[in-house]
Amino acid sequence: MAISKWDVSVNGKNHTIEIKRGFGALKVVVDGQVEKVRSQNFWIMLLDREIRIEDKVLNLVMIGTKADLAVDGVYLGTGEKYVPVGRTPAWAWVMTALMLILGYFFSGIIGLLIGLLGSTFCISRSLRIDGKNTLPICIIITIGCIAVQAAIMFLVMQLLY
Fold it and tell me: Where are its TM segments located (predicted)?
């Protein structure tokens, strides 16, 4: 089953580009040619792949579950200008560590799972293509996660004692 599929015309010839789920990796299919690709980030799916068809360069970008294809520097899905996907900022990893470590110490495995969810949101937001500053939203996500983890800790303490 294809996650995303595009039909593009290069020099008058139609070409099909698909992203399919594979076992442990994604498959990029260009005109029937299958290539396995792995995420550039171990936390969420991150892919910025250059595809050459004849003399044209296409950029296949996937962040999380959202995928788009850029042709001539413009995304087909959104119409926005193509911007290469950068690395995950260091502050996102610091917030991830905070949410996971404090979550585990505050409320055990439940806190760890809440930290995992918050970390996924924070990292995916930090990789925005449009270049907007995402630090404030990630700070809010981190504070919210830690507050929920602390609330669970106090609730459990009240129930036990």
Answer: 90-123, 135-160
